[in-house]
Amino acid sequence: MPAKLSVNLNAIAMLRNRRDLPWPSVVGIGKRALEAGAHGLTVHPRPDQRHIRFSDLGPLRTLIDETFPQAEFNMEGYPNAEFLGLVERHRPEQVTLVPDDPAQATSDHGWDFRANQTLLTDVIARLKDLGLRVSLFADGDGDREALEIARATGADRIELYTGPYGGCFGAPDQAAAIAKELGRTAEIARTLGLGVNAGHDLTVENLPLLVEHVPHLDEVSIGHGLTADALEYGMTETVRRFRRACGEVVA
């Protein structure tokens, strides 16, 4: 099965937040993405609300529930009390836990599973009581012991951090080596019973090689590259292009 596409709306929200105006509409762009066949929508509500605002979450939840009930809402963030409260209020189908410091510009590394096993185990138990799927941001370094700990926390999936892969554009040999390592990491996760998502700096150009090395990829969450392409192709055609890059047959 082709990897499913979740459209990350953070960049859209950041553009909106440049002015005290309601456009571009985060909900409106999310609706267009889902109409074009995206499987779901992803948001990362950071404490400073510099892109997605807490007030966006209810309307996005309503959009999916009332108009696209087959779609999924994915909320990602560091599991502090504020974020967990938002999750409990809006009940996303998937929660992606990331080890971000609030001051970080963007997610740039996976969890240290050895150091954070107790924290993650406790948080995941709380989320599983709500019936939510949980994914953990993970480095693609092939560390089997770390992935065994990730599985022991009760997580359902990992999300491979693909920043280093996305950052080696123009260096095909380096990209191929990193894709191979990501594939090895994904296969270890799969043998342990973990599903595999991926995200960060993925593009129409680099997705096919990743999909080749991670043939059982469940989902990709893409925001920056997809939003950049939407400025050129429009959101509808961009979603279709990314779906094709994931291996989906799109007429």
UniProtKB/TrEMBL annotation:
Keywords: Cytoplasm, Pyridoxine biosynthesis, Transferase. Pfam families: PdxJ. One of its GO terms (biological process) is pyridoxine biosynthetic process. The active site is at residues 44, 76, 200. InterPro entries: Aldolase_TIM, PyrdxlP_synth_PdxJ, Pyridoxine-5'_phos_synth. The record marks 159 as: Transition state stabilizer. It is an enzyme of class 2 (transferase). Gene3D superfamilies: Aldolase class I (3.20.20.70). Its EC number is 2.6.99.2. GO terms for cellular component: cytosol. CDD domains: PNPsynthase. Coiled coil: none annotated. Its main location: cytoplasm. It is found in: Cytoplasm. 3-amino-2-oxopropyl phosphate binds at residues 8, 19, 201, 223-224. One of its GO terms (molecular function) is pyridoxine 5'-phosphate synthase activity. 1-deoxy-D-xylulose 5-phosphate binds at residues 46, 51, 106. Pathway: Cofactor biosynthesis; pyridoxine 5'-phosphate biosynthesis; pyridoxine 5'-phosphate from D-erythrose 4-phosphate: step 5/5. It catalyses: 3-amino-2-oxopropyl phosphate + 1-deoxy-D-xylulose 5-phosphate = pyridoxine 5'-phosphate + phosphate + 2 H2O + H(+). Homooctamer; tetramer of dimers. Belongs to the PNP synthase family. Catalyzes the complicated ring closure reaction between the two acyclic compounds 1-deoxy-D-xylulose-5-phosphate (DXP) and 3-amino-2-oxopropyl phosphate (1-amino-acetone-3-phosphate or AAP) to form pyridoxine 5'-phosphate (PNP) and inorganic phosphate. NCBIfam families: pdxJ, PRK05265.1-4. HAMAP family: PdxJ. This is Pyridoxine 5'-phosphate synthase. The lineage of its organism: Bacteria, Pseudomonadati, Pseudomonadota, Alphaproteobacteria, Hyphomicrobiales.
